[in-house]
Amino acid sequence: MSTNHPLETALPPRFRRPSLFTCAIVLVFLALFIQGAMATNVTLERLLRGIVNLGHFLGRAFPPDLSNLDVLAWSMFETLNIAIVGVTIGIILSLPFALLAARNTAPTPWVRTITRFIVSTMRTIPDLIWALIFVVAVGLGPMAGVLAIIMDTIGFAARFFSERIEEVHPGPSEALSATGAGKLSVIGGAILPETLASMTATSLYSVEKALRSAVTLGLVGAGGIGVELAAAMRLFNFDRALTIILLILVVVIGFEQLSSQIRKRVI
Amino acid sequence: MNAITITELHKYYATLHVLRGLNLSVTQGECVILLGANGCGKSTLMRCLNGLAPHDQGSIHILGEPLTRLSPAKLRRLRQKIGVVFQQFNLVQNVSVFQNVLYGALGQQRLGLLTSLSCFASNELRERAMAALERVGLAHKAQADCRALSGGQQQRVAIARTLMQDAEIIIADEPVASLDPKAGREIMDLLLDVVTERGMTVLCTLHQLELAQQYGDRIVGMKAGRIVLDVPRQQVAMDDMQHLYQGETRVDQPPLSTTPRLTPATH
Fold first, then answer.
1. Residue B239: enclosing H or E segment and its boundaries?
2. Domain tally for chain B?
C-alpha cells in the first residue's frame, strides 16, 4: 500500500552513525587482532606443514593399538569415579553456597558479598589449575582430581543455583512466612520445590562438564585416563593415544545421551 | 476486644508516602470489606498488618498485642493468628495440593518444615489437613499437582491452608480479583461460611462493588492512603462507593495532564 499524500514527519534514517565508544572499541580490537596475528606467526606455510605433520600422526596412529584394553578400561573407570564423586559432593556443597549468595535467602548483605566472592574465585580459577594446586597438596592421583572437580562444580553450580533462587516468584514464600513459618522452613517448603527442576538440569550438565574435565585432569597427574593419554603422547605411541581418544569419545557421548534422556524425564 | 486496632498509621516506600495517617478498628468476629481504587494503599495496609511490610509511624495492635518492635519469634507467633488469602493464591508449585494445605501448620510446629512434610507429619496433622480439604470440597484433589487446578480451586486450597493455620483473623487481599464472576461468588460464599463457623474476624479487600453490597458487616473505603468511608453494609450508598474511584485516588498520582491516555484499554 502506498500513500499519495506527503508525510508530515521525516522518515527515520536507514543507518545511524556508530557512537564514538563503538568506534574506539572496534579500532582497539582490530589493532589487537593484527598485532596478535603477527606475533603468533600464523602463516600459510606453517599451516600447510601442520597438515602434513597431522597426516604423519594419523598414519602412525592407525590402526589403533587395542592391546592392554583392560588397563585403559580401568583408567576410564577411574575417570568416571572422579567425575561422579567430585560432582556429587560439589552439588551438595553448592546448595548452601547458593542460598548464602542469593539476595532473597542470604541472612545479611555482607554474608552474600563474601559468599559470592568465594564462589566466583572458585569459578575463575580453571579446573586444571585447581588440579595442579591439589596435586601439590595431596599428591598425584585421583584424590587431587576429585578435589579439583568439587571446586569447579561449586563455582559453576552455586552461581546458577543462586540465580535461579533469586528469580523465584516471591508469592509462595510470602504465603508461608505469613503462616508464621521460620526462614529455613520457607526455604525448604517454598523456594527449593520451585527451583528443583532447574537445579536438576544444572546438576546434570555439571556431571557432563565434570566428566570432560576429569579426562583432562589426568594430564597434570590427577588420576584417570588422562594420565595414560599424556604418557602415550610423550612416548610417541600414537596408535595407543588414538585408542584412548576413541574410548573417551565413546564414554563422553554415551554419557551425554544418558543425561539428556534423564533430563527429558525430569523436566 | 478489638481484633485489629490501627492508629495514625504512616508508611513510606522510600519517598512515597503510601499510608497517610490511617485509623481503623475491627472488633472480634466482625467482617469488614475494604474498598479502594488501585494504588490507594490497600495492599500495603494488608502487608503492614502481619509485619510483611513494617510500618513507619503509628501503631497496630493485633488481638491487643502491639506489632511494633516484636522479636522475630514473637512476630512469627502473631502471624500464626493471622491467615492471609492472596489474590494470586500463592500455592507452592511442584508439591501436591495436600502438602500445600499441610504448609498451613508450619508456624505451629516446633520443628517447622520437618514435621510438616507429608511423609513425616503426625497422623493427627495429616487428618486435620484432609478435613480442611474436605471442608473446601477438594478432598478428591489431594494428590493432584497445583498447576492442574483451576483458579477457583487453587483459591480453595489456599483457604484450606489458612484453616490448617487455625487463625483468628483472616486477611484477604482481593481474593476473587483473578477469578470469573461465578467462581468469585463461590469463593466469597465459602470464605464467609468458614469464618462464621469458626467465629473468625475478616478484613477483605474487594474490587466489585456489587459483591461488597452482599458480603460482610461493614464497608470501609480508602482513597489516597486514608480512610474516607466507614459505614455498616446495610446503610452504604452506591454513590459513596463509586466516589472512592474518582479524583485523586492513588498515592503516587502524577498530575493528570502528563499522563494522556494514548490507546484505549483493550480489556
1. helix B238-243
2. 1
